[in-house]
Amino acid sequence: MQTDSIDGAVRWAADSGTAGVVVDDQVQGSLATVTDYLRSYRPFGAAPPAAPAPPKVRHVVGWLLRHPDNLDSDEQVALKYGRARCPHLDALARHVAGFAEMLTRRRGDRLDAWIEAVEADDLPDLHRFTTGLKRDHTAVRNGLTLPHSSGAVEGAVNRIKMIRGRCTEGRTSTYSANACSSPPEGAMSITESGSEPGPGNRTIAA
């Protein structure tokens, strides 16, 4: 169907004898349907522009998890627009920002109020998160309050796992051979028999 105006489209539908709307060679709806549909566009003279495509989930997640100061102007506008149109997204963004502030400012004293505020909103995914927090409430509160960190211990454990993995794979490189034959610098050597390391004893780095 080729028409030069909205009125032409309505006249074509009335004169076609099909009493319907032809779209891609298929009849859809009735004459009243197409008339009502086209009448809504009469003040504009043309159909309004298509709405912009919604942002991808990974983009929204990135906006929520980054500090607002690290978002460019387009990202800030997009996030503001999304929050204004979706109350659930607005609530989620507010709770994520609140938890980030607790985490970076060591405000574990706000944990209980944050959990209560989250559970008051219709956010099932965050409810599962708060259930886990309450299960380990003391540890979570201490982690959000105290200055201590287990990062150094975790780093040492990961290094030992890396060395053990290379030894288990049986690599013959010089680095692997040296790593398997000698403990890390400053480590304590322990043998299974309790004696000094020897050919028949296994050395474990602790």
Q: Which term fits the overall shape?
A: elongated
User: Which residues sit in consecutive blocks of at least 5 with pLDDT less than 50?
Assistant: 1-6, 17-22, 187-206
Total number of β-strand segments? Answer: 4
Proportion in β-strands: 5-15%
- Main sheet attributes: strand count, strand direction, barrel closure: 2 strands, antiparallel
Distance between the termini: 81 Å
Oligomer: single chain
Q: Helix proportion of residues, in percent?
A: 55-70%
- SSE pattern: HEEHHHHHHHHHEE
Residue-averaged pLDDT, rounded? 75
* Strand order in space, largest sheet: 1-2
Number of helices: 10
The class by helix and strand makeup works out as mainly alpha
Number of domains: 3
Computed over alpha carbons, the radius of gyration is 33 Å
Mind explaining what this structure looks like?
The chain is mainly alpha-helical and 206 residues long. The chain has three domains: 1-50, no CATH class; 57-143, no CATH class; 151-205, no CATH class. Helix content is 56%, strand content 6%. The protein is built from ten helices and four strands. The strands form two sheets. It has a two-stranded antiparallel ribbon. A two-stranded antiparallel sheet has the order 3-4. α1 (6-15) packs antiparallel against α2 and α4 (73-85) packs across α5. The model is unreliable at 1-6, 17-22 and 187-206 (pLDDT under 50).
